[in-house]
Design a protein that fits this description.
- The complex is a heterodimer of chains A (115) and B (603).
- Chain A has 115 residues and is mainly alpha-helical.
- Chain A is elongated and about 50 Å long.
- Chain A starts with a helix and ends with a helix.
- The relative contact order of chain A is 0.10.
- Chain B starts with 12 loop residues before the first helix and ends in a 14-residue tail after the last helix.
- In chain B, strands 6-7-15-14-9-8-13 form a seven-stranded mixed β-sheet, with helices on both faces. Chain B has a five-stranded parallel β-sheet with strand order 2-1-3-4-5. Chain B has a three-stranded antiparallel β-sheet with strand order 10-11-12.
- Chain B is 46% helix and 13% strand.
- In chain B, α4 packs parallel to α5.
- With 603 residues, chain B is α/β, with parallel strands linked by helices.
- The chains are: A mainly alpha (115), B alpha/beta (603).
- Chains A and B meet through α1, α3 and α7 of A and α15, α17 and α18 of B.
Chain lengths: 115, 603
Amino acid sequence: MTIHEAYKQPSSGDKAKILKETQVLLAARPAESGFYAKATEEQIKLLGMNELEALTKSDHAHKPLSEIIVQLIEAGHLNKALKLKSDFKVPDKRFWWLKLKALAAAGKWSELDKF
Amino acid sequence: SGTMMMDMSVSLDALREYARKELVDLLNETRGGKVLVLDRQFAGCLSLFAEIQLLKDHGVEKLFYLEGEFEINCQNVIFMVRPQLHLMERIGALIDFQRRRGMSKEYAIIFVPHRTVICEHVLEQQGFLLPNVKLYDYQLDLIPYDADLLSMELHDSFPDVNLKGDHTVLYRIARGIAKLQNLYGTIPSIKGKGEHAKAVADMIVKLRLESFADGDEAVIVPEIDQLVLIDRQVDLVSPVCTPLTYEGLIDELFGIKNAMVEVELETSGDAAPGEEEEKEKKVTQCLNSQDKLFHEVRDMYFMNLGPNLYKKGMDIKGTYEERGNMRQKSTGEMKEFVRKLNILKEDHRSLEFHTNLAKKIKSIIQDVSFRQRINIEQGLLLGHTDEANDYLETCINKQEPLNKILRLLCLKSLCSNGIPKKELDFFRRELLHSYGYETVLTLMNLERLGMFRQQSDRGGDNWKSIKQAFRLINDDIDEENPQDIAYTHCLYAPLSVRLVEKAAKGLWGDVATRKALALLPGPTVDIRQEGTVPVAHGVNRRPVTLVFFIGGCTFAEITALRFMGELIGHEFIIATTKLINGDTLMESIIEVPPPPTEQPPQL
């Protein structure tokens, strides 16, 4: 399974490279794996956003999208988080939960009040 | 070994003794004092039928777990392990450690249930297949777990058989049943449902013919009337439902391992008055039918437990109070009273534990979150499949434990014959975003198993037909005095047990049953093993059915079988590849990719 292989790679770049192969394989069988081919494409896009790693001062290779959004808000980059929200079509409801989690973690109680 | 409390006409003690004798024979192969090094997971299984004293009686001076490096001050070392590669590496490391310290020892490795070519290869490559390392096999397939329960304790049997296509488990089941037939006579009738049930049945017949050819079949009057093989694939709904029985809830909330539970409980008595903090202490308790009190209450609907424990408490109090009238008693009566008092002390200790545990469980299940979950689950079973969507979305957003969410999502999919594409894609995206892209692997596993899948445009409501044909929903339960196995989930009667019911009542070949069986996946098994000695017909003898769950069974299913046995005057021996619940089943399917391999810094 190439997904296993991809996850052995420590860096986002290497991971994305192997996921590209995965995506090609998945796309070849559109009937049952159309969704997964698209999901893999999305993941490659996310892994390519290296500039975000600097903003959260952390490695994103193994982080779910939701966690990256939380970290961005925690670090005060709400705009970048909103950009991810629209790029990856995150529903309002989930974003609301993530924002709540991030503000609570960052101890920004005054902003929590505005909820 | 203590005999079990339960009143069974077929005693599994014979199997127990057989397992113990084989163990002792293997230990005796190594003369003199020895150290036994156990793989930790197997050690738990061993404790189910062999006590420390038995090991001591046969020269075992010390026990270790096969973990890390430690010095062994004994000439003979026996490893007892499952045939797993990482364990071979640990054995190698430990032998190496002794060598480096200049200790030359005699080694033996006992494989449970047998060595594999790849394990031998790994040992050879590491240079440990020297003349002073002897290899043995301990063919232990069915482990006696309780008076009516056998388990193979194979943690990954479900994914191994259904995802990896590893059919050695099926062979081991057939071999285990063949061994049972040697001890209890050839079982005249084999019934079953599902692809793997068919495979196992065919192997049982084949193994018997082989032993015929060898002239090996023992002529024993059969004690077991029939065997029912249930392939877990046929009933995936039951294991994901939350049980509402006492033992089921203990397992659900705290996890029962090797008939033991470890739980933090309030300690009664030693808290000084006025002390504000109520301290909880870790308590370990054995849960089997040797505990008379537990035996009586384990299968109860949880809400009936409280009044029953209270009544037991009053009985014990009554006997203690008898002490006051001692003077008027004769010596014989005194002796009898002292005997009673000793039993009572044990009962009292058990009562105290179970009262505290019941209190803890009650506080959990009365909590809103638990009740909400049960409501959603019951709604899904009744067919209100859309009501779960908001709840599921919120759970995912809050990143609640993945196994709990998948359990409910699978129930939704199973109860609605798949999930409409748009909804399915929504949930899949939500899961990948919240739990990470690698969750793809787990979702693909669930789809391959048919537990989480897309609704097809064709095909009617198959689940609804199954529900009706097997009477799976019963919303008219007398909770205080239940009359139907549906009390185990307070609505839902496990499909697997309804299948067994058909076989136990002799309805397997009926037109109606056959029509109902056709709704379920896989072939139906109905085999008579010809040429067997007729089954014994003692006075008041209840028919005995061995039920084998291929891929695991839950405590609620065991409870339902025991309850049905009482109802219809039937005895069930239950065997399984593993005791499971919804959480552990999901954990075995969830695939976690290995962590990145450490690589040297690039130049």
